[in-house]
Structure formats: structure tokens, C-alpha cells
Amino acid sequence: MPAKGKKKSRGKPRGKKQKKPEVDILSPAAMLNLYYIAHNVADCLQLRGFRWPGAAKAKKGRRKG
What we know:
By secondary structure, this protein is mainly α.
């Protein structure tokens, strides 16, 4: 039987968090990605974080069914 005492956690080591690099949402790569995932202008703006009051919240993950 294992001895009782402190348990070792296997999580990420805590330290300084790295800042995320600033991403250009108008770059050619971003535009190509947006071309494939957005269905209209409203989708485009919502996916880029420009939501309007009363907009439905985005659902994450796959739908079952």
C-alpha cells in the first residue's frame, strides 16, 4: 500500500504566463480561414468577436444527433 502523505500533482508547472502574440485578423491566412467558416457578414463579425446586443451566444463543440 502506498504511504500516506503529500500527493504529487501532474499538472502544468506554475510560472510566468506567456502573453499571446497579437494576431492580425486581416492577414491573408485569416481571410482564407474566414472564407471557409463564415456563411455571411453577420457570421464573419460574430466569429471575429464583434457581437451585437441580443445576439445568440455561440455554441461550442459538436452537436449530438
